[in-house]
Amino acid sequence: MDLFQLEEFTSHAGNTLPWKIECDALSNYDWTCLAEMIMEYEKRPFRAVIGIPAGGNMLAFKLAKYCTGEARHGILIVDDVYTTGKSFKDFIDTNRYDRGVNLLCWVVFARVKPEDGINALFQMPA
Fold it and tell me: What pLDDT is attached to residue 124?
């Protein structure tokens, strides 16, 4: 399986796109490395990490060892690919986090510049 696939597919937001980033192609070791890379940049402590299903689940699993478990720290929300931001918005709206909860958001690949508050490890040019 290839990480980058030149084929049309429909995004979470319902958009037809000409190519896909297929993160199922990443190995266990790749996910470990990506988690370590994120932790080089994310200096804020977090009490828990949650992956946006299903793409963010493996990344969340790899980042779980960094959770403090302390209620005063934020919650890290992660996903594999950011296209429009709909997955993040839907996930946050569905889970109805209290306004006082500090949400830290990371994505591995961003097809566009993410909205403020969402960090991308790799971002496609605008």
Answer: 95
Residue pointed to by tokens 């209290």: 98
10 Å Cβ neighbour count for 50?
Answer: 20
pTM score: 0.93
The answer to whether the CB of 52 falls within 8 A of the CB of 23 is no
Under 8 Å between Cβ of 56 and 31: no
d(CA 112, CA 85): 9
Q: Under CATH, to which class is 27-123 assigned?
A: alpha beta
Return the ∠ at Cα 13 (arms to 109 and 15), rounded to 5°.
90
How far out from the chain centre does Cα 124 lie?
Answer: 15
Which ranges constitute the DSSP H helices of 1-126?
Answer: 28-41, 57-63, 86-95
Question: Alpha helices, DSSP H only, in 44-104?
Answer: 57-63, 86-95
d(CA 69, CA 45): 10
